[in-house]
């Protein structure tokens, strides 16, 4: 019995040893097959992806690479180790038999997977969306240009942010001309000169009249500047003159200030700023006008004659003729003082005028049209009223002085260009016109002048080649002559044949703003009024269509921009209108 029992235990032990040997053999075979399968498929995937990820060459003390080695026999617990996201489980591999085994990864947790995806991003995108190539539609530039030209200005500014190509395509002069000639533009009102907390903020409030939406623009170039005048040529706005404080920068300071003669050019369609030639004299609040001129106008002839009348300076031994004979300088001065520059009959040596087109990048020079900007009056550096004027040629980028106004004309308070004549109105109720083509002033006698309240200066407006005037007068009420119930703002039109004024319309609002701004565009007259009442600044925007027989005024905006402004904004504001 004992021997049989011992023999049974020996056979059982042999069976267990054979079983454990077979288990180790199966486990080793499974690991080898798994390793071969993983390497084969990994090489195939790497060759397809074009990226090869290999183990780092790490060596232990005993030699040989320890990365990827099976350490289950050494540590005994394969499940206690950290699993890598790039192991067989992450790639979809499974063990053939036995428990699942893992290997030590040479990368930190998740790095190998991220590295693999990053280098194969394009391949994965193509696999995930096999039909994505059909979505790439390319339009010709001319069709794309026509589509973008029909967008409103707000949508066009958003489209410029899509790519560099769209931005470059929509900022060319040809694109602007397409929008202008295709009537795809709508009127925009730009209001300048706002004051917040005593400082000139430099903000510009823009109103899209067609959509009745307000937009706010930041203008760093206008911070600290006030009492400047604005006007528009095509798609650009000119900011002329102004003042800035010398002691308190940015504040509206009338005690210590500097008067500017610089001119800025603002393009709302491209949101760009440029500096143009400065005026001859520093001015604040000058009266501005815009006029289209021909090639034989006075300003072009005068520029040509000034260039031809220059005396050449000959140098002998490095010394000028003037220094050799000082008497020549005095004789030359006497010559120019005695000859009137407008009287060309006294100058027989002057050659006949020949117009030569000057090269310029300005849009007005590319389509054959030439515009000039005229600035008259304003206040000088010592706060004195000016009676001089200047003309700016947008093509040659030069300013030229013009003939002064009469001494007894008075201080210019408003002006407008109508049919080639720049009309100005003075505080003394006098009207004069400057012939831009010929270059001289003409006094205009009109009787009677529209009645007005002395504190409110009239505003001249030119619309559809018709000259209008907005003046504030007392309204007689209840049929009682001499009884002044209220003040009203009336619109008057000048008859060019009989030189008399005719009342055509009455503004619906009470004239609370003595410095109301009005600007005309085609057949519309826009007006903005700002005033402070009950501790709050209010604003009203109105419009009048002069093509209508009734010429009624209507409100387009109320209290949308002045609730955060100071009362001094009523005095410093200015307005321009563009079609964008």
From TrEMBL:
Origin superkingdom: Eukaryota
Q: Which PROSITE patterns match?
A: FBOX (PS50181)
Quote the InterPro entries the UniProt record gives.
F-box-like_dom_sf, F-box_dom, Kelch-typ_b-propeller, Kelch_1
Q: What is this protein called?
A: F-box domain-containing protein
Q: Which organism is it from?
A: Rhododendron griersonianum
Q: Please provide one cellular component term from the Gene Ontology annotations of this protein.
A: SCF ubiquitin ligase complex
Q: Note down the stretches annotated as region Disordered.
A: 70-92
Query: Which taxonomic lineage does the organism of this UniProt entry have?
Result: Eukaryota, Viridiplantae, Streptophyta, Embryophyta, Tracheophyta
Q: Locate the F-box domain: which residues? A: 133-178
A Pfam family reported for this protein in Swiss-Prot or TrEMBL = Kelch_1
